[in-house]
Every structure is written in C-alpha cells, then in structure tokens.
Design a protein that fits this description.
There is one protein chain. By secondary structure, the protein is mostly helical. The chain contains four helices and no strands. The protein is elongated.
C-alpha cells in the first residue's frame, strides 16, 4: 500500500513538473512545442499563465487562484488568436 502511494506521488510530481515546464515555455516563447499541442492550444501565453497560476495555487493553497488559473487555461484553449495588424505598403 505504501509503495503504491509513493509511486502515485512520484507520477503526480512528474506530471506537475512537465506541465510547469510547458507553461513556462508557452509564456516565454508564445508557442507550444510540437504540432499536436500547437493545434490544441490557440493562445499559448494565456494558457501558460493559467497553468503557472494553477501550479502556484496548488503549492500555496489558494482556491481563488486555482479557479482563475483554470479559467485562463480554458480561455487559452477556446479563444481565437488575435488578428495581426497589416502594415501599410
């Protein structure tokens, strides 16, 4: 029983670490690695900020930050990218 719990904690820690790295990558570079993630997530920076907020709220125990982060992650998936303005020629 204790070994299964330890294994579960290790796997959960690795998942949190991987999502945190993806969030930092999305915030800093403004894109997602790989074609599959880039197709799923329309606004990477918004998604990354939401993920980082959720990880921080889980670490420090804030339910409000968790809900706000979840909303930002959802908006990162749903919101269409902003149109880039065309420069006059």
């Amino acid at each position: 029983m204790a070994l299964a719990l330890l294994l579960l904690l290790i796997v959960a820690g690795l998942v949190v670490f991987a999502v945190t790295v993806l969030g930092i990558h999305a915030v800093l570079l403004g894109r997602m690695p790989g074609p599959r993630l880039a197709g799923w997530i329309r606004r990477p920076r918004l998604w990354g900020v939401g993920v980082l907020l959720m990880v921080c709220s889980a670490r420090f125990g804030g339910a409000t930050a968790l809900v706000i982060g979840l909303g930002l992650v959802t908006l990162g998936h749903v919101a269409k990218p902003a149109a880039r303005p065309q420069l006059p020629r």
